[in-house]
Design brief:
This protein is of the alpha+beta class. The radius of gyration is 23 Å and the shape is globular. The protein starts with 5 loop residues before the first strand and ends with a helix. The chain has helices at 14-26, 74-81, 149-157, 159-174, 183-186, 188-194, 200-210, 228-238, 282-289, 294-300, 342-345, 375-390, 416-430, 439-442, 446-467; strands at 6-10, 32-36, 48-51, 54-57, 63-64, 88-89, 96-100, 103-106, 111-112, 115-116, 220-223, 241-243, 248-254, 257-262, 269-273, 275-278, 304-316, 325-327, 336-341, 355-362, 399-411, 434-436. Strand 9 (111-112) and strand 10 (115-116) form a beta hairpin. A 7-stranded mixed beta sheet has the order 8-7-18-19-20-17-21. A 5-stranded parallel beta sheet has the order 12-2-1-16-22.
Amino acid sequence: MATRWRVAVVGGGITGLAAALRLRDRAPEGTEITVYEQSGALGGKLRTGELAGGPVEFGAESFLMRDPAGGESAAVTLVRRLGLADRIVHPTVGQAALAVDGGLRPIPGGTLVGVPGDLAKVTAVARPTPEADRDGGRPLLGPDEDVAVGALVRARFGDEVVDRLVDPMLGGVYAGRADDLSLATTMPALARAARTEHTLLGAVRAAQAATPRAPGEPVFGTLAGGLGTLVDAAATAGGATVRRDAAVRELAPVGSGWRLTVGPTRDPEHVEVDAVVLAVPARPAARLLAEPAAEVAARIGELDYASVALVTLALPEPALPALSGFLVPGTEGLLIKASTFFTTKWGHLRRSDGLALVRASVGRYRDEAQLQRPDQDLAATVHRELSGVLDTPLPAPVDGHVQRWGGALPQYTPGHLDRVAAARAALRATRPTLALAGAGYDGVGIPVCVRSGETAAEEIITALEGSGR
């Protein structure tokens, strides 16, 4: 008779919660699922808080509505599965700007993460070099080639397109730099097109044509009441035993399963399970795998992370432009790299008292020293720089919050996808009852993390079914 499965999910972010829910939906009835979260709160980078008496996101603020193939994104599917679809809301103001040359200029349309598909549309922000984008008689990239985004775009469109468009767009998502980040990981559609197209302009247009979007169709969504409702609903529906403040310090193979060492060194708890979904950042995952899977640990341990701080200010009746926010190129010399006008962008957050919520993102990869400043200093600098960019003195905030996310954003260097594929192949060959999941491997964003967790759960089910358990 088959025994009841016991599965541990290490990490209580949205990836781990999605994995636990998929296990509950697809694994045999009676499967014991336990989520181990080292902090006191579930949700990871999804954290809804309160500021000046209203809800505000202190982490991720939205999710993509569509997947790269044009279908419904994994986040939307999860929202529907949890019965929250009626809470989906969309931005009421979508136009954003770039802070360049001391002022705000609308972000040009027709770009792919800042890489233009029409060079004429970006001339108000950057001066491209169209003469450099010549057809050399072969595709831009070889079949398995990966390059840094900056290397490709600089060679074809010039420095200004990278520094003033691509870099701030990537910086807003990854807190990283175009000259470091993998094209295949951060812009997979463009990378695929570059393996057949002979010019960058042609590759951008091909990538855009491959993922068409209906006019007026919303790109982003969030949940009225905050993304914390998604976290709570996923945890409840998953029905797993949730262990908060439960750090998993060691993983050791025991037969075809695993022994987890949980809790403080002086009073450890040992738990045996049949399988593990490891849904934590790559570096702690590498530490846990150093003994049982040294080759895998070495591969995933190479991934570096950037730290950021999110500074949110509640401002009484400020004079804000009709924009969702703005991005700041690193060449502008500002601490702020991006800002969102929450109560302008999201109509459901607008307040009758005229109070505006403005959030700024601070911190770029390899510039984490700026984050050592005290909260008060960061908030004051953000307020001063916002006033400068908007060219108007902003009123003093009536409330504020600084959320620090240490080691939050993976920095995918060229070859990242191959390294992850090799690590996962090694696990399937030697330790099939352990699966890796999360942003460190598959990309940032709520839909990607949800799909990563669900895929890991499916792999565990397949492995346990194959073992006859």
